[in-house]
Amino acid sequence: MKIDFWFEFGSTYSYPVAMKIEKMVTEQGGHLEWKPFLLGPIFSNQGWHDSPFNIYPEKGKYMWRDLERICEADGLNYKKPTSFPRNGLKAARIACLFSGEKWVPEFIRSVYAANFELDLDISLEEILKKCLPFSDEESFTKIKRANTSLAKQMLKENTDQAKKKGIFGAPTFMVGDEIFWGGDRLHAAIQWAKNNQ
Amino acid sequence: MKIDFWFEFGSTYSYPVAMKIEKMVTEQGGHLEWKPFLLGPIFSNQGWHDSPFNIYPEKGKYMWRDLERICEADGLNYKKPTSFPRNGLKAARIACLFSGEKWVPEFIRSVYAANFELDLDISLEEILKKCLPFSDEESFTKIKRANTSLAKQMLKENTDQAKKKGIFGAPTFMVGDEIFWGGDRLHAAIQWAKNNQ
Hints:
The structure is a homodimer.
Chain A: E1 2-7, H1 14-27, E2 31-36, H2 40-45, H3 52-55, H4 57-74, H5 89-97, H6 104-116, H7 125-131, H8 136-146, H9 149-165, E3 172-175, E4 178-181, H10 186-196
Parallel strand pairs in A: 1-2
Antiparallel strand pairs in A: 1-3, 3-4
Helix pairs in contact in A: 1-6, 5-8, 5-9, 7-8
């Protein structure tokens, strides 16, 4: 069975999922596809020019408390970021361009940890460099390649694909054409994949 | 342990919860408090004058499919209502005014079944009469009492209380001051109640 995990680096609820999903899916004998995309253009389509958690304060207040509870239950070292949402554009381009390479899942987790455990600005190349498991020089080259139009185009295509599939938030799990939205649907998505694939 | 279940009769995701929550909570030795309220005034505060599932079509499309899956998993006879959201004002006034009476939980479930299994207009008194476990005459009297200013006031107070507590959607579960939003958080709410009460 195969699960696509659509995630955005700025997304709070994607953080606990990113930290556990690979283990959960592979333990069930499944294959996980990491699908970075941007929520910005999708939110814009809905008329939102900021995170709905900032636009709707009650929703935001709840989310921060909920995230704290989830991280505690998952044993994660969560620290509320002092800036939200952080711009994950460059991180997403890296994850997109090098998609399929063995080091990418660990890079993704490092970026989430930088944002939600260490409260670091993941839009900065110097932070991303620390998330890459390479020498400074190699990391520098990888980041440079992620600034090319090819990488930009690849991320744009992922985001367009997400839009076309009807994805409207993150984290989203897809099993074939079935959409499961929200971290609390991860179990349901895995169950669905097991029963239907 | 005690769980407050804040629900709105028009709310789709409240339906599968309403059908199972009492059994789940009492099986765990807990006490369930039914808390009817209206989402309309709360959505208005957020600038929405319709259900967000109608305002944001992608979200709506997902919700209908998701609800179908959940009902199938729960073994419920779900039928997509031809009108959404239905006006649950009168049903909520009844549930509010007679809150605590033994027949109320079954009445609540009957109204949800009318809306989401039988596709009936729950705003109509003739439909609500069929949901009440009384003779025609007694039901008529109950409905009449639910049209008094006392019943109106009680529902208004519930809705104001929900707003004050930071509730922004339904179903919502409250354990003390802890809010859990969404049907998929029911297990987490029960777990929280067990661990913290």
